[in-house]
Amino acid sequence: MNSIKRQDGTTLIEIMVSIVVMAIGLLGLASLQLNAMKYQKMASQRAEAIQAAYDLGERMRANWVLSVPANYATERAANETNYTHNSTYASTVSTSHTSLPNNCAIVMTNSSGCTSTQIAANDKTQWLRSIELRLVGGAAYVVPVAGTASSTFDVTIMWREQGLTSTDSACPGAAAAPVGVRCYTLRYTV
Known about the structure:
Layout: H1 10-62, H2 72-83, H3 89-94, H4 116-134, E1 139-144, E2 152-160, E3 181-189
Antiparallel strand pairs: 1-2, 2-3
Helix pairs in contact: 1-4, 2-4
């Protein structure tokens, strides 16, 4: 008689190997999902920073005073001074931007309203507050660019980015942004 040897347990080993392979695949998918969420958060913060930079630019453009060519140099200097915000990161973050410096409500009987300087002060306060609300550790640094023919500003938006373990080279040195702060700078010409 011919006896056939049967192998017992091979299907069990095959099932165990397939479970291990599947577990490794699922761990890979979980890692992929976590990375996608991290990069989505970073992209969202950058988009908020870009919108904030353009928001200030539009506020500047709406309040820019240029009456006659003879007054251009004086008015340009005043406009640039009104919208400059050159405080350090720590100073900006520690300052509360909740109340407006000027009450510019225009009453129907009094159409004087605010001066362009007062509007600029309100614009900066509202804008800095919106950055605080939009971005974790949000702050800004705004300076005019020297030597340009028209009023040009470097508008830098700063925020804390999770996982950033170095100083961002895009941050202006004068802003003194600490380690872990990401910067986005937009050059805006009014």
